Amino acid sequence: QVSIVEELEDGDPNMFVHHEVPLSDFPLCTAWMDFNRQDGEQKGNFIAVGTMDPTIEIWNLDVVDEVEPHYVLGGVSKKKKKVKGKKGKTYKKGSHRSSVLGLAWNTVVRNALASASADKTVKVWDLSAGKCLVTLQHHDDKVMNDTHSSLILYVSVRNIILWHIKLIFLLPNM
Description:
CATH class: Mainly Beta
CATH superfamily: YVTN repeat-like/Quinoprotein amine dehydrogenase
Radius of gyration: 17 Å
Helix content: under 10%
Distance between the termini: 37 Å
Low-confidence stretches: 169-174
Structural class: mainly beta
């Protein structure tokens, strides 16, 4: 559900359901962002949603009754490549391999979205291109995240790693 909270004339808060968004799975994390992929200068209301699926769905909250995400990052490929003797899923290039546990949009580098996963990786996505820019593989366990401005903090069982978002855009894939 997309709910609106507004302040009434008497100062009391008022909350109402504006519309519903049909998610593919139970949401584990969300990150609101105003970056518009179609026009980076024009702001909008978007929400990135991470679920038990390795897909990150980006929903346009300004569109009422939308039935599909505005766009998707990663996920399972619909094209099936059958390799003899191997079972399993084929993932889109740059995709997580397990649940997305944390999402963080950066207000300094507006086209950057960071995601943390149960696959022990952190990915930084370029929203303009709709692809994974860098994969950070420095964790021994599932990764969850917290952000503050241009810093990205990732926490797993044995590690706490702090990255500066501007440096990530300069690094080769890790």
